[in-house]
Design goal:
The chain has 390 residues and is of the alpha/beta class. It contains 13 helices and 15 strands. Bound molecules: pyridoxal-5'-phosphate. Its EC number is 2.6.1.11. This is Acetylornithine aminotransferase.
Length: 390
């Protein structure tokens, strides 16, 4: 089918929840994707920070094929070697020692919230304005942006919101009934907002002084995006609970809740479950993807190529008044413009680069971590050229 035919069928048969680009993708390899007309694009979206190990990585493909031939799914009322060895690997690479497996970021945050409520015996959760935590009723409630909540009330009780990067506001919002503070170590959907260096450390201190848990939503920042396996390591702050999804299984759908010590011992049989959570197929994909991240030094690449990419974006900013800000860490970069960036995204795409616009006027660059310097050069030179029109 060509792009037009696919778009027509979508319109007819798929609920129109997405503001989609007029682009139908068919295959990918590394940091490149191809549309159904055969045109290639450098991928600075990576399925929104999902394809961290690139598209069609042979080791991930092999792990999925091999596992699919053995056992795709079984119930969590049975054990599998794939699930326990993935949990062991996560304990090795993360600051935590226990995992619960689910299927998405929203589900991971739901699990994290349940865990915090049960562990503390308290109900209230403090989250940040401008945050993003998912699209279920409870996670749109956690998301501190009314545009995601409108039309979907009543919302889940027990949530309050404070400004991101404001430790004092969080301290003031804590009550005797506060279970946890839920925070993205770097706000993603909100426009790639990197907090000041000590913010997360101070926030954790305030939480612990008040017997409140701190949860990091690392759904977007996890698995090398900020230059370490987890942003908690980049910022050198260990939360009580971490929620994960997006890049965890190289593009295969999966989520996880990680916790340490007593917090990780809270759930008992019957407390929480997911039919598909931690299926052998998802776990095989996740193990392969995490091992590729380690073996191919993708954390170092994220740091080094991220710094290279950011410097090039900063050079563009210096020459263009329409660029308000360049920010980010590792390969999670944002360029804030003084205009809505939808049309610029179209022009980039027409020139063979896919990039995403978030928060209305922020170009978000979250490419596969194995993107090459040559590919980065192509992206920034196209961007520079396209910006001439503004
Ligand atoms: C994408 C995202 C989510 C939601 O993940 P889904 O898999 O779409 O449910 C939650 N939190 C953050 C920080 C995200 O970036």
């Amino acid at each position: 089918m060509n792009t037009k035919e696919i778009m027509d069928l979508d319109k007819k048969y798929v609920m129109q929840t997405y503001g989609r680009q007029p682009l139908a993708l068919e295959k990918g390899s590394g940091a490149v994707v191809w549309d159904v007309e055969g045109k290639s694009y450098i991928d600075c979206v990576a399925g929104i920070a999902v394809n961290n190990v690139g598209h069609a990585h042979p080791k991930v493909v092999e792990a999925i094929c091999k596992q699919a031939k053995n056992l795709i799914h079984t119930s969590n009322i049975y054990y599998t070697e794939e699930q326990v060895t993935l949990a062991e690997l996560l304990a090795e690479v993360s600051p935590h020692d226990k995992a619960f497996f689910c299927n998405s970021g929203a589900e991971a945050n739901e699990g994290a919230i349940k865990l915090a409520r049960k562990h503390t015996g308290k109900g209230e959760i403090i989250t940040m304005k401008n945050s993003f935590h998912g699209r279920t009723i409870t996670t749109i409630t956690a998301t501190g942006q009314t545009k995601y909540q409108k039309n979907f009330g009543p919302l889940t009780p027990g949530f309050s919101y404070v400004d991101y990067c404001d430790v004092e506001a969080a301290a003031d919002a804590i009550t005797d009934n506060t279970a946890a503070v839920l925070v993205e170590p770097v706000q993603g959907e909100g426009g790639v907002i990197v907090p000041p260096k000590d913010y997360l450390k101070e926030l954790k201190a305030v939480c612990h002084e008040n017997d409140v848990l701190i949860i990091f939503d690392e759904v977007q920042t996890g698995f090398g995006r900020t230059g370490s396996m987890f942003a908690s390591q980049t910022f050198d702050v260990t939360p009580d609970i971490t929620s994960l999804a997006k890049a965890i299984a190289g593009g295969f759908p999966m989520g996880a809740v990680l916790a340490s010590g007593e917090v990780g011992e809270t759930f008992e049989p019957g407390d929480h479950a997911a039919t598909f959570g931690g299926s052998p197929l998802a776990c095989a994909a996740a193990k392969a993807s995490i091992n590729v991240t380690l073996e191919e030094n993708l954390l170092e690449k994220s740091r080094e190529n991220g710094a290279y990419f950011k410097a090039k974006l900063e050079a563009i900013k210096d020459k263009n008044d329409v660029v308000v800000d360049v920010r980010g860490i590792g390969l999670m970069l944002g360029m804030e413009l003084n205009f809505q960036c939808g049309e610029l995204v179209d022009k980039m795409r027409e020139n063979g680069i896919i990039v995403n616009c978030t928060a209305g006027n922020v170009l978000r660059f979250v490419p596969p971590l194995l993107i090459s310097r040559e590919q980065i050069d192509t992206v920034t030179s196209v961007l520079e050229e396209v910006l001439q029109d503004y």
